[in-house]
Amino acid sequence: MEQNILDGILKIEKEVGKLSNAQKILLTTDGSVTTILDVIRGHVRIETLEQKFIEADSKMAQLLNIEVGDTVNYRVVVIETQEPLIYAISLIAVDRLENEFKEDLIRADMPIGRILRKHNIESRREIKSVYYEAQEPELKKIFKEDSTMLTRTYNIIHNNEILIWLKETFPYKHFRD
Fold first, then answer.
1. What is the pLDDT of residues 166-176, one digit of tens each?
2. What distance in Å separates the CA atoms of residue 58 and residue 85, rounded to the nearest whole number?
3. CA 51 – CA 91 distance, rounded (Å)
4. To the nearest whole number, what is the mean pLDDT of the chain?
5. Residues 28-76 pLDDT 10s
6. What are the pLDDT digits (tens) for 42-52?
7. Which residue would you say has higher pLDDT here, 134 or 97?
8. Nearby residues of 94 by Cβ (< 8 Å), 6 or more positions away
9. Positive/negative CA dihedral, 121, 126, 128, 129
10. What is the percent of the chain where pLDDT is above 90?
11. Is the Cβ–Cβ distance between 48 and 76 less than 8 Å?
């Protein structure tokens, strides 16, 4: 694991509090978060809050290593069981997708990890950062609590190109057991 990821974990523990093993795993895994959540919380589902195709601005283009103006699928979801577990934002480089993948993505309520597996897409996850942040008002409504948010960003790499950039966040109070 990269040193900056370990440093991020140490900083969170120093400034927010001790992390449980489950929290550390969710923040640092280079595997499917959906699979981990299925194991620790039961089968999860996706509630799509927003999904649209947009033109990449300069920040998105930099994150995905594409050109400004290229088409990006912007997707905001909550991964949940009976309660919200993780809030996730994804940016997907549409021109790098195969048509069947695109169709499943547009249906919206399937986790990205399951779509990758369904289409046998070989990929790897590259963790970019782990950190904490204050809870935004929208997240307070979703999680129905006031808590510092634990956050990670990562890329899903396919054919040596960034296919998807993701930001996942969950309340510090979650996954404490």
1. 999 999 999 98
2. 31
3. 10
4. 90
5. 998 889 889 999 999 999 999 999 999 999 999 999 999 999 999 999 9
6. 999 999 999 99
7. 134
8. 53, 70, 71, 72, 73, 102
9. positive
10. 68
11. yes
Closest CA to 64 of 126, 155, 153, 125: 155
Place of tokens 């400034």: 15
**Under 8 Å between Cβ of 131 and 49:** no
d(CA 110, CA 40): 19
Q: Report the alpha-carbon distance of residue 16 to residue 133 in Å, rounded.
A: 10
Q: Rounded CA gap, 104 and 33, in Å? A: 19
| Locus of tokens 């905001």 | 76
Map residue 134 onto helix, strand or coil: coil
Which residue reads 């396919």 in tokens? 158
Q: For residue 159, with 0-12 CB atoms within 10 Å meaning exposed, 13-18 middle and 19 or more buried, which class applies?
A: exposed
The answer to whether residues 119 and 104 touch, using CB atoms and an 8 Å cutoff, is yes
